[in-house]
Amino acid sequence: MSEEAIRLVTIGRIFRRRWRLLAIVAVTGAIFGYGASLLFPPSYTTSTSVLLAGQWEERELLTQAEIASSSAVVDRAAGALDWSGVSGSELRDQVSAKAADGNIIKISGTAESPERAQKLSDQVAKQFVTFAARLAGEDTDPDAASGSGGSETLREKVAQTNRRITDLANAADPGQTVESVQARTELEKLRTSLQEAMKKLDEADPASNKANMVVMGPAVRPTGEAPPTRTQLIAAGALLFFLFAVIGHLAAARASRRLRTEPEIAAALGSALLGSVDVPGERSAHRPEGGGSRARIRRILGVDTRWDVPTPRMSGDEADRRVRYQRVCARLREKVPGPRRLLVVVPDGDEIGRRAAGQLVTEAKSDPGSSGRGYPALRVVEVPVSRPLVPDRGTETGALVVLSAGSWTAAELAGIAEACADARHEVVGIVLAGQVRARPARTADRPAEGATPTVAVGADARGGAV
Description:
InterPro entries: Bact_polysacc_biosynth/exp, LPS_length_determ_N. It is found in: Cell membrane. Its main location: membrane. This is Membrane-bound polysaccharide biosynthesis protein. About 50% of the residues lie in helices and about 15% in strands. About 25% of the residues are buried. The protein folds into four domains: about 10-40 and about 230-255, no CATH class; about 45-135, Alpha-Beta Plaits (2-Layer Sandwich); about 140-205; about 260-435, no CATH class. A hairpin with a 3-residue loop joins strand 2 (about 95-100) and strand 3. By secondary structure, it is of the alpha/beta class. It starts with 7 loop residues before the first helix and ends in a 29-residue tail after the last strand. The protein is rod-shaped. Strands 5, 6, 7, 8, 9 and 10 form a six-stranded parallel beta sheet that branches. The chain has a four-stranded antiparallel beta sheet with strand order 2-3-1-4.
């Protein structure tokens, strides 16, 4: 697993074999999300639109948006609202403004209730219009009033001048002399210049700015909470914890140092592989033994069995499985000639290896050969991998290691090999046990209980090497 790519089948295996743990982790994340929602009370957001009539450049609209959310406007809104315990600095975090399409400034307000959010947005929009008008020169102070009066007086003077020009043009010599034509032409040029000047004055008049900035109705009272809502926080917590659990499983599998391939296992034990055998699958094959509350909790969570073990493949019936065991015994007989006794070393906790070792002992007892060429006598011993200890050499003159792939690290297997060497046992071979799904037993053409199939040693029942 440490060198394999992460595939969908791996994710599916986590879901199938760790669904209880993932469900509990997701519920825990939902509880954390609910707790976070209690720390952040619900809030409501609504907005008010202010229309800026006329031609506005983009940078000017951005400037107006900054003014709408500035402290000068928000502080005035806070003073007008006069909410107890709420200052302008606190409201500044609850007010935002942005320039929208169509020369519109959208002012948003956020509060703990729909009513307050509506009042906040409306009041900030009102204060923004008033403040913008003051910036443009519109105010009610005496100076502004006198400025406005001066503009009206100037317009009256221009109107009087236009009337006087008309009178002069009418009083000019109606003849077609050069002097009369030039006089009327000059008077018309003067009238045109005055009209253009008044047009520019009207366009630059600050008094028109206030009329060009209009609040487009009151804010709509919000009906739902502003994100993140309590439901969103609960869902986000459950999803986040769920993803962390899945990623944690994948990271642990990638960092696993358990040996899975035959060459790695053979190199760690320093011996040759005699073959591989099949063990019919059982629910407790990868489940550690033991009791107590801790074991019960592991069973409830579904972590008492390994998830990273591949799905057992379909095997033949019992006769096919016996062929593999008999081939291993035959190779063992060729490797260790004569009537010898061997220890079958199984790592403690390897249920698949223990069952395979028991079947090997059974097959070794059903010796089809002569007494001089029979199978070696086997005795099974389970060795703890934490502090491996193998019985000293006595009647047994060698050790056969039986284990399942993907269960032990190189250091653990090296420790077993060293324990065998300390007890003066030579590791004569290795047998790998794999879990399979059994098929129904044959009803016909089944080999006899003690018969040895007439197949070449080194090939499985379908002709492949074991």
